[in-house]
Amino acid sequence: MEKPKNIKDATAVNPPFAKNYANEFLVLESGEGCYLHDIKGNKYLDFGSGISVNSLGYGREDLANIIYEQSKKLLHVSNLYTTRPALLLAAKLTSLGDFAAVHFGNSGAEANEAALKYARLYSKRKKNDNSAVKFLSFTSGFHGRTMGSLSVTPNPTYSEIFQPLIPECYVSEFNNVEALESILDSSFAGVIVEPIQGEGGLTPASKEFAAALNSLCAKHDVILIADEIQTGLGRTGYPFASAIVGLNPDIITLAKPLAGGLPLSATLIPAKVNDLIKVGEHGTTFGGGPLTCNLANHILDLLLDPEFLFEIIAKGDYMRSKIEDLAKKYSFVGQYRGAGLLTGFTIDTGDMDQNMKKSGEVIAKAKEAGLLILRSGKNVIRLAPPLVISEKELDLGFELLEEALKGVFVK
Ligand SMILES: Cc1ncc(COP(=O)(O)O)c(C=O)c1O
Question: Whose CA is nearest to atom 3 of ligand 1?
Fold first, then answer.
């Protein structure tokens, strides 16, 4: 397989975007398979998938045809009506577990907003207790940027300036069973947790922690919400990563890969919650439109095909072995993290400031070499290629990654 070469500068510097992001952007134009092209004609192997969104890769005729055909029929109906694609998708999604209904939205944050609202609604109506309203989330968790989802995202970089957030949100240490036992009681409405922390360093919930969450939430009748926005729908080789860690959530939230890059989210809820909702208590204009749902029906069939999932597990094992090889070779490559094709490793120099700086440099060097990779947390290099990636492309990606690592560390 040919290596990308002659990378020319294709960045836009200081464009008039709100200054939330970097001030330099790679300007992308097109893609095919697992490759992306920028406006200068440079080619990149993608180990980021638009942050776990583009699971099926780029330039797909099947997705283009569905979009074209559906757009000729209907793009939008209000939520006074519904469409065949939405009905079909709702049936498919609810059959993935013990769910009675789905609330569609447009983004991960919105899916979590809905989950938090439903947890409060359940707690107040079921317990007939206006004081059982607290939410619990965990250190290094990430659940979105809206005021509600931000209130359960305990990272001061994202939230400090926006205080006060919604009241009654508490934080406990991730994977600390004792701390969990001492805080969680029936004054809580909901607990929100990622089975594997996508933005917070790819740490999985331990089996003991997941078991404690299951039993304490059941004991106190607290709604357990699994945020599977990054981990769900095949990314880890399973429909839901909750299955890997042994989490039994009441509600699951999904978004990123659901409509292959178009905005669609889903909040899957059980009958005990759905039965208590009254008309008008929550809603959306665009969520669950016919275009995104039609696409999601097709994508879901592909992503959740057992053979496809089986291949993801095998490819994930292969990536793990490649990472472990790098760790044997280079002292600055630390622990393997993640599961399936949501993988990574820590950069470990012995000094956290250096680790963070070097992680950024590795990502930049990889881009120069023609490989797009991500960071998770402070010093974890995150590798999340499209799920359709081949073994040859994985090999090429690791060759380019090693080149980048050597470029940063081996002078
Ligand atoms: C685990 C998790 N939850 C929630 C979100 C928020 O999703 P969105 O950016 O679509 O609002 C993200 C996005 O990265 C995520 O990774």
Answer: 143
Å from CA of 72 to ligand 1 middle: 31
DSSP-derived secondary structure for 94-111: HTTTT-SEEEEESSHHHH
CB 46 within 8 A of CB 35: yes
Is the CB of residue 277 less than 8 Å from the CB of residue 118? yes
Fold for domain 62-303?
Aspartate Aminotransferase; domain 2 (3.40.640)
Residue found under tokens 């099947």: 62
Answer whether 230 contacts ligand 1 (Cβ < 6 A): yes
Q: Rounded to an integer, what distance in angstroms lies between the CA atom of residue 384 and that of residue 61?
A: 23
Residue 252's SS3 state is strand
* pLDDT tens-digit readout, 306-318: 999 999 999 999 9
| Contact call for residues 228 and 66 (beta carbons, < 8 A) | no
Span from the CA of 193 to the centroid of ligand 1 (angstroms): 12
Rounded to an integer, what is the distance from CA 339 to the centroid of its chain? 13
Rounded to two decimals, what is the model's pTM?
0.97
Whether CATH 3.90.1210.10 fits 306-411: no
